[in-house]
């Protein structure tokens, strides 16, 4: 969902800024998941044209040939033919390297394997590092989502520092958000059995997302006879740490917070924004982020947040309440403060909506600036 939302918001931003002046050709595998593709595309009419190709279909002979030729000869013959056929001016956010005939801009999402190596096995770290070296060495520009990631790139891959471009993505608030009312609140409360006052954590249950500190804060709150309800949505499978979710559930049972640590799993996207709207605050306790989509969604919605004190969160939302991600007492202090105040979602709807559109346009503008610079410098 993170990748799907990233590209949908990028397409919307380009359309908002440039309209029909810029055409995006979205190249996908021939056997693409049609539902995922549908969620990725902005509403019609749009400036996005979809092209399905066997070259990107993992396991297809064309895919094997492309990968083998690139590995042995360092050539992008297959990609070059595709670029020429589609008459592209530049290629962005792909796994192509060099020799396509047009500027290639590659996106590196984050450097989690550098900061949290204990969450990866040695083979995965090696493979991820090799891929980053390959993509950054041959790209015209390397796109990262934060100044924090740009510094990581300069520290770990200094050869790419001069070609780094920062593109801070913006998440768009869906139109229905601005029409949400108490009937919508009553619907989600009934569906998910929620308290009238709750905190919302829309993070997948990966180990670095740090749900453990939420449980320890709830444990302390229970001992103080303070009722807090934390509502979590997102996928419950961590492929790197398959026992992680089970361990969290076991800890929740040990401290007796089954009804205050609510796990909803993957829920409809419209419910995500309803929970954002009516929560006391949205919490992101993560130990690492590239550029958090959760934070971006709350910025667009004008929603207050309680965030782990990591550099990228400071960069992304400096006015949030921050806590040490290893300190449940500090987290609890912020949650109790939010619980004691009347609900506030920040600006009024009209102001937040106008700010949302402005940020979208700036995002689209920045992306087009980077593409234009790459094309000009390649001439």
> What number is the mean pLDDT?
90
CATH superfamily of the largest domain: Glycogen Phosphorylase B
Query: Between the first and last Cα atoms, what is the distance in angstroms?
Result: 37 Å
Elements, N to C (H/E):
HEHEHHEEHHEHEHEHEHEHEHEHEHH
CATH architecture of the largest domain: 3-Layer(aba) Sandwich
CATH class of the largest domain: Alpha Beta
Helix content: 40-55%
> What low-confidence regions span 5 or more consecutive residues with pLDDT below 50?
none
CATH topology of the largest domain: Rossmann fold
Percent in strands: 5-15%
Number of strands: 12
Radius of gyration: 22 Å
Task: Describe the structure concisely for a colleague.
The chain is an alpha/beta fold. It has helices spanning 2-18, 34-40, 61-73, 77-86, 112-115, 122-138, 147-156, 182-192, 212-223, 244-255, 269-278, 293-301, 311-316, 328-339, 349-378, and strands at 24-29, 48-53, 91-92, 104-107, 141-144, 164-166, 199-201, 230-233, 261-265, 281-284, 305-308, 321-323.
Can you tell me about this structure?
The protein is α/β, with parallel strands linked by helices and 379 residues long. Helices cover 47% and strands 13% of the residues. It contains 15 helices and twelve strands. A six-stranded parallel sheet has the order 9-8-7-10-11-12, sandwiched between helices. The chain has a four-stranded parallel sheet with strand order 3-4-5-6, with helices on both faces. A two-stranded parallel ribbon has the order 1-2. The longest helix is centred in the last third of the chain and has 30 residues, at 349-378.
